[in-house]
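INSTRUCTION: Work out how this chain folds

Token vocabulary: learned, describes local backbone geometry

RECORD BEGINS BELOW THIS LINE
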Amino acid sequence: MTIVRLYIDPGTGSMLFAILIGLLGVARFAFKGLWVKIRFLFSGGKSKDTSDEAIPLAVFSDDKRYWSVFEPILKEMDKRGFDCVYMTASEDDPGLKQTDMPHVKTECIGPGNKAFAKLNFLKATILLSTTPGVDVYQWKRSKDVKYYVHIPHSPAEMTTYRMFGIDYYDALLLSGQFQIDDTRDLEKVRNLPAKELVLTGSPFMDEKRRKFEERSENAAKASSEGKDPSDKKVRTVLLAPSWGTSAILSRYGADFIRDLLSTGYHIIVRPHPQSFTSEKDLMDKLMTEFPESEQLEWNRDTDNFDALNRSDILISDFSGVIFDFSLVFDKPVICADTEFDASPYDAWWLKRLPWGLSVIPRLGAKLTKENRGDLKKMIDDCIEDESFAESRRQVRDEAWAFQGEGAVRMADYLVAKYEELKKAQEEPKTEDTEKSETKEPKGKKVKA
């Protein structure tokens, strides 16, 4: 018997999904309209439908690891008495367990297409998310969401998203001027409407820095009292790459882990979470070949704070974790030269090295095929070279504006934007306004 396997490419799959969502949408609104009429008749014409009122601020997280990105912002919004709904695709998201923010409702909307199906019919004034790709594949802009706002989950780039990742957002809240410059250049080269770009800082970097300084103070106090619990005898090296064909584990694989183990140092391997989905066979193979031991640990913690805090040096490629490690924890990095292939990313359009890769030589050493032979010496030299400290300070200032003020500034923006949109909705429309709105392309109504 011959088994025929049906393959559907991502583009076709997205189209079929969009058709299905459209049919479901028609059915949903038809049923809703009928239900409202029935309620109206049975109430004697006095019933008002309030079951589907717009959420003032909806926050979408496609993975539990981004709770640390949103938590500082939501805490600030809650302090101001501003109602928000945090929607996550992860059933075990720590945000679902929060109980100290009465103005923040949380819910799990399911993984993958289940989450997108919910978002595609969402009714909200503002939607805030770190997830790229709105209106590109399965995630479509809802006609009942007034404004889509994106915040990056790293103070690094806007150009190392997969192509078109931020094209259909209305606004971006950024931490560095270079992000603004790159976004404007992308808009020009692709002839896109100008988005609203606002320099606000980085709330999650602020929170990590606060936590790190608190830990450092406690450790210093314990050490002065002769109670230092660390008792660390060997250096700890953290390998935390990105994912995809240009990343370390895809390029060098098992050979690179062997090189690290040969140093005799304690090794933490923390693959990008997406690797366990998109590169599952590779991860299974590596974790089987290199099981955990006293020298080697595989780290899959939701929050990367502990792994970063325990490590003396980071080895990575083009992952945004480079900036968490060097700018927050003020430690050196080694960046592996994996011959970055820009073709899947927005960086391809700009025909220049992404900002994050361009500043790596200022943060630490560059690992190549030629100098991999003496990895231990490179690690030692990089840790002991104090000249990188000043460079880290300079890069920190470029990538991380308004340090310590990120959550307040983002909350200021979101509240002001909500009031602006609410006021615009309440104002009576003129004939000219209605004509101008019908001429704007769907999904691209933005503020220059």
